[in-house]
Structure formats: C-alpha cells, structure tokens
Automatic annotation (TrEMBL):
The DZANK-type domain, residue ranges: 3-49
The organism of origin for this protein: Clostridium amylolyticum
Subcellular location: Membrane
One Pfam entry name: DZR
UniProt cross-references to InterPro entries, sorted A to Z: DZR (IPR025874), Ribosomal_eL40_sf (IPR038587), TM2 (IPR007829), TM2D1-3-like (IPR050932)
UniProtKB keywords: Glycoprotein, Membrane, Signal, Transmembrane, Transmembrane helix
Sequence intervals crossing the membrane: 62-80, 86-113
Listed name of the protein: Double zinc ribbon
Length: 127
C-alpha cells in the first residue's frame, strides 16, 4: 500500500504515513494501490484502474430526503452514522413539542444543496 499524499510505501495496517504524517488513505496525489502519481482530480488510477476517490456507499439524495421527511426523528443522522446526534434530535423534538423538528428539516435541505458531504466515517457521500 502507498500513501495517497506522498507516494511512500506504507504498511497495509498503518493509519498514518511515517514519512509525511498524513492519514494513509487521505490525499490526492498518488494511487494507494500502485504508488503511481495521479492527477488530483482523477477518480481512477490510469496505471492500475483502482478507484481513487473515497466515496462511501451512503447517498446524499437519500440522506437529504430522510432529513426532509423524517428529520424530526433524526433518521438522516442515523443513516449517516451520527447516532448520538440522531438521539439528540429525537429528544429535542419531544422536549419542544415538535418545534425541534425544524432542525432535521433544515439539515435535509443543507444535505441536498451540498453543505454536508461526509458521513461519520469521513467518506464522501455518493451523488
């Protein structure tokens, strides 16, 4: 495995590159599979064909719609992996007799327009 930031070969179990100090899968200059220098906007390595973008399996559209329609229950936060905030949204909605449901509704809009783009694990949301 190679560091995506500096291209140095790293142990597959390493979380941080010892040469540059960045997280091993964070960065955009080298392929983590073959070490080939890549264009920073490339989504696939031209040498080995591996996907370079860290795109998760969670959808931005699904998260946004869950926020719009079920945001008062924090369902969109549970979907994105933010369990604690999801529970907090339920509590706020109950304590405020439903007024707190605006929080989830507004977050649903923000997800759809692109202000939220990562899940709890740091993966980009799929379009």
């Amino acid at each position: 495995m190679y560091c995506r930031n500096c291209g140095e070969q790293v142990d597959p179990n390493a979380k941080v590159c010892v040469k540059c100090g960045s997280e091993t899968l964070k960065g955009k200059y080298y392929c983590n599979n073959c070490g080939q220098a890549t264009d920073e906007n490339a989504s696939i390595c031209s040498k080995c064909g591996i996907a370079l973008k860290n795109v998760g399996s969670r959808s931005k559209m699904v998260a946004g719609l869950l926020g719009l329609f079920l945001g008062s229950l924090g369902v969109h936060r549970f979907y994105l992996g933010y369990i604690g905030i999801g529970i907090l949204q339920i509590v706020v909605t109950i304590v405020t007799c439903g007024i707190g449901s605006l929080w989830g509704f507004i977050e649903g809009i923000l997800i759809l327009v692109g202000n939220f783009d990562k899940d709890f694990d740091g993966n980009n949301l799929a379009d």
